[in-house]
Amino acid sequence: MMKKFTVTLAALVLALAAALPVMAGPQKQKTLRVGATPVPHAEMLAEVVDNLAAKGIKLEVIEFTDYVTPNLALIAGDIDANFFQHLPYLEANDEWTTKLVSAFGVHVEPFALYSNKYDDIADIPSGATIAIPNDPTNGGRALILLADNGLITLNPDAGLEATELDIIDNPQNFKFLALEAAQLPRSLDDVDAACINGNYALDAGLNPINDSIIIEDADSPYVNVVVVRKGMENDPRIKALQEALTSAEIDDFINDTYDGGVIAVF
């Protein structure tokens, strides 16, 4: 009788244990490593860390200060995505377009001409030296900006990757100094003017709206995109990042922080 009771009690304990809810330990977060230039990209990513953490994703932001290494790191698998470039820049490199793809667009950073010496384009003298980015896409972007404002004339067939060879009229004999984009703000004391990408201008304390001599209009093809390796576009982590970076909260952050130096496109 005692043996039967012991067996029955043991069975009851097991049944009760099976019926009780399992106390789950803390869920292991999935990691998402995103490469970004500091301003505004890394700042915007920092704003969505908690948003992603609530969805079980640990966002790690790896900062880069140039325009080449983030794509190389992405191809190598060192990061899962990057956020620093516009689509024409990505599409200018055949290897990149073979292996990488835009997952979604976020914003435009107005490209502009700055000077520490002159307050108006009419004051820039003949023979002046204007610094421009040395990569084909942003160098072309600089020349198009100057052409759109009547300083030079470009071959109408030049496209987005116009070069100095496409200049068909340069009435003031401007000289162009091609520099790595990150160096352009530091060149302002050494040249007459410089065409500077929005992120590097903001990082140097320059606002395209308030501090530039001339600025791109709103009709810009240079939307900054989050880029991933092909096949990762629908990764749940990337979709969660898209939802976070195109939220009303980020729209408010952009408007409150950059004073027109960054324009959301969502």
What is this structure, in a nutshell?
The chain has about 270 residues and is α/β, with parallel strands linked by helices.
Q: Any overview of this molecule?
A:
The protein has 2 domains: about 120 residues, 3-Layer(aba) Sandwich (D-Maltodextrin-Binding Protein, domain 2), CATH 3.40.190.10; about 100 residues, 3-Layer(aba) Sandwich (D-Maltodextrin-Binding Protein, domain 2). About 35% of the residues lie in helices and about 25% in strands. With about 270 residues, it is α/β, with parallel strands linked by helices.
List the helices and strands and how they pair.
Elements lengths: L1 H18 L10 E7 L1 H9 L2 H5 L3 E7 L5 H8 L4 E6 H5 L2 H6 E9 L3 E3 L14 E5 L2 H13 L4 E2 L12 E3 L5 E5 L13 E4 L1 H6 L4 H4 L2 E2 L7 E7 L6 H10 L2 H11 L4 E2 L2
Parallel strand pairs: 1-2, 1-3, 6-9, 6-10
Antiparallel strand pairs: 3-12, 4-12, 4-13, 5-10, 5-11, 7-8
CATH topology of the largest domain: D-Maltodextrin-Binding Protein, domain 2
- CATH architectural category of the largest domain: 3-Layer(aba) Sandwich
Number of strands: 13
| Basic shape | globular
Strand percentage: 15-25%
CATH homology superfamily name of the largest domain? Periplasmic binding protein-like II
H/E element order? HEHHEHEHHEEEHEEEEHHEEHHE
Major β-sheet annotation: 6 strands, mixed
Q: What's the mean pLDDT score?
A: 91
Q: Structural class from helices and strands?
A: alpha/beta
How many DSSP helices? 11
* Residue runs with pLDDT of under 50 for 5 or more positions: 1-25
Strand order of the largest sheet: 2-1-3-12-4-13
CATH class of the largest domain: Alpha Beta
Secondary structure: helix percent: 25-40%
User: How many independent structural domains?
Assistant: 2
Our measurement of the CA-to-CA distance between the termini, rounded to an integer number of angstroms, reads: 75 Å
